[in-house]
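dumping this here so i dont lose it
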């Protein structure tokens, strides 16, 4: 008998190598404000998801139980392939996808975003008008269209998500979400890491 579908699945994309950070470890293991990016992201997803899977290349060593690991597809790279692999890992009603390099996204902000999905296949913040598909909620019905886009040769996760006609939350609507500004804080460089640490040390922490 197939396992019952989860109400909510957390998909943590943790495959970045962190080369632009100049780190000797994968990006997920870089410390930000006293905790690794991996630990922060897991703590963010845990209150809003019934189960979490962590997607990364097979060869990448991460302190995650084997039962929780999902490997990037063989021969594929990039966030779209990782996103599809994560969504295909479990049966679910809805999934919260989070990239490991968004340490200022909070559980509270993800809950608020989730409430805005309604019947859309996906809902995502769009700070400055730019969709953020790696901190977003997806219906289970979004899985097949994204897989088809990947199979057809698409590699841009933003372009692939257009087929979903996602609900984009921007401007005043995004500003109304507590901690909504966290959706625009990617950590890719040492300067961005330092900025995130300063923000975490401030009143929002």
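and the seq i came up w/
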């Amino acid at each position: 008998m197939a396992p019952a579908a989860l109400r909510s699945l957390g998909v943590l994309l943790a495959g970045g190598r962190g080369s632009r950070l100049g780190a000797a470890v994968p990006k997920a293991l870089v410390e930000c404000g006293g905790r690794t990016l991996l630990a922060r992201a897991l703590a963010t997803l845990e209150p809003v998801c019934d189960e979490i899977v962590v997607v990364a290349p097979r060869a990448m060593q991460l302190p995650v139980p084997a039962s929780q690991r999902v490997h990037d597809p063989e021969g594929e790279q990039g966030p779209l392939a990782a996103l599809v692999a994560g969504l295909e890992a479990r049966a679910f009603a809805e999934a919260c996808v989070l990239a490991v390099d968004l340490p200022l996204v909070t559980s509270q902000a993800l809950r608020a975003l989730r409430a805005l999905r309604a019947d859309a296949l996906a809902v995502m913040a769009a700070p400055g008008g730019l969709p953020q598909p790696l901190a977003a909620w997806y219906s289970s019905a979004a899985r097949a269209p994204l897989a088809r886009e990947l199979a057809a040769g698409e590699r841009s996760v933003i372009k692939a998500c257009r087929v979903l006609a996602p609900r984009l939350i921007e401007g005043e609507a995004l500003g109304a979400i507590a901690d909504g500004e966290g959706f625009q804080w990617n950590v890719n460089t040492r300067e961005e890491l330092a900025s995130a640490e300063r923000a975490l040390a401030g009143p929002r922490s």
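Residues 6-201 form a domain with the Spore Coat Polysaccharide Biosynthesis Protein SpsA; Chain A fold (CATH 3.90.550.10).
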